[in-house]
Amino acid sequence: MILGNSCGSIIVPGTSKTQYLYKGKFESITQADFSDHLASLSQSFLSTPNVKVVINRTSDGYLKNLTAEIIAKNEIFFKNLREAKVTILDYAAPIHFSLPKGDIYLSSGLISKYIKHESMLVSILSYEMVRSENLLYPKQLIIPIGFITLERLLSLGRLNIEEKVEVHKWAHYLTIRSGYDGEYYLSWLQTQNRNTADFILQVGDVNLINREEFLFKAFLIKNASDGDEIALRKNSSKSFYAFINSIRDKNL
Hints:
Elements: E1 9-11, E2 18-20, H1 31-39, H2 41-46, H3 57-72, E3 85-89, E4 96-99, E5 103-107, H4 108-113, H5 118-134, H6 150-156, H7 161-177, H8 183-194, H9 200-203, H10 209-222, H11 238-251
Parallel strand pairs: 3-5
Antiparallel strand pairs: 1-2, 4-5
Helix pairs in contact: 5-7, 5-8, 7-10, 8-10
C-alpha cells in the first residue's frame, strides 16, 4: 500500500486565510496516475458479484441535468470536472461515494428513505463533486483482482474529520451558488447523526458524526451572512419528485 497526495492550497469559503483541503497522512505521488488508478476501480466494482445497478431513464436524465447545473453555476471552482455520471445502486443501506473523473454512486435506499428535498440531494452531489474535482481520496494503490466490494471501496475513500469538514464547507458553498437552500446541508448531517445505525456503513465510526455536525455548525454561525445575495429555491422541482418516486416505486 502506498499513501500519498498532490497537495495544493485554496481559499476555504468564509475564511480570509489560505487553508488546505489536503491534510494528514499524505505524501506526494503523481496525481494523474493516481486519478487513473482510482477511477479504474469503478469497472472492478461494477463487475463484483451482487452489485446491482438501477436502470432508470427518468433518474439518469434528471441527475445528468442536475450535476451539469452545479458545474455550470460554479465554473470558477470546477477546473477539471466537466461532467459527472451518477450511478444508482440497488442497495437498501443509505450510502453515497465517488471516484475521480466524476463517478458518483448513490444507493436506492438513500434516495427513497432519506432524501426529502432537492437541496439535500444537491448537497450530497456537491460533496462528492468537490472530492472528485480535487482528488480528495486517501492515496492507496490497489492491486487489481477484477472485483472490489462495496465495503472495501467505502473504507478506501474515508477522510478524517478535519478533511471532511473542509469538504463540507466547499460543498455548502457550491450548493448555495447553484441556487439551492444551504440549510439542507446541515439537515443532511443531522439526518446521519439521528440515524447512526443505518449510516454505519457510510461513516465507519459513528462516534465522529456528532463532532462533524458540531464543527460544521460552528462554521455556519461564523459565516451566517454568506449567500444572502443569492435567490435560493425553497421548493423542490417536479422533476425531483418524479425522480424520487421512480426510485421509491421500484423499492416497493
